[in-house]
Each structure stands twice: as C-alpha cells, then as structure tokens.
Amino acid sequence: MNATDELNQEERKRFINHAIDRLSPADAVVITLFYKKELTLEEISEVTGMKTSAIKVKLFRARKRLADELRRQLATETESLL
Predict the structure, then answer these.
(1) Binning pLDDT at 50, 70 and 90, where does residue 6 land?
(2) Predicted local distance difference test score (pLDDT) of residue 43
(3) Rounded to an integer, what distance in angstroms lies between the CA atom of residue 16 and that of residue 78?
(4) At 38, phi and psi to the nearest 5?
(5) Which tens digit of pLDDT belongs to each residue from 21-80?
(6) Contact indicator for 22, 69 with CB cutoff of 8 Å
(7) Residue-range domain boundaries for the chain
(8) Which of 53, 48, 24 is nearest to 37 (CA)?
(9) CATH of segment(s) 3-81
(10) Residue 45 CB: number of other CB atoms within 10 A?
(11) CA-to-CA separations, 20 to 2, 3, 8, 32, 63, in angstroms, rounded
C-alpha cells in the first residue's frame, strides 16, 4: 500500500467515524460492536442484554441511518468544493 492509498483509507475512516458519531447512541453502539470490534451477534447480545433478533433489526436500521448520514456528509462536502 502506498502513501496515497494510506491517506485515502485514513480519510475514509475519519468520514465514517464522523457519521457514526452523528448516529443515536444505540445505533452507534451496535455498529461499533459489530464492525469495529468485530463481535458476533451472540457476543453483542451478551454485552447489551438484547436478543439477537433485536440486534439484527437494530443493525439493519442503523446501517440505513449510517448510509443516509454518509450521503448527507458527501453532499455537504461536494457543495463546499463547488
């Protein structure tokens, strides 16, 4: 990986982390535990006390909200460049 790729990867991480920070705390927790900490649904259930079925639903909805937030950020950043 060259320096440009590393910079792009760091920028993506910053962008995603900022979007996660803008989610509700409950959404941010399940996204963080599943993707960043790489916990299984069962492990998240142990940590949160939620049923795995509820975690699946929460993850589905949190992913949608995260995607919406990323789109908003991208639109804002694009507008600032123009």
Answers:
(1) low
(2) 98
(3) 16
(4) 55, 40
(5) 999 999 999 999 999 999 999 999 999 999 999 999 999 999 999 999 999 988 887 777
(6) yes
(7) 3-81
(8) 48
(9) 1.10.10.10
(10) 16
(11) 27, 26, 18, 8, 10
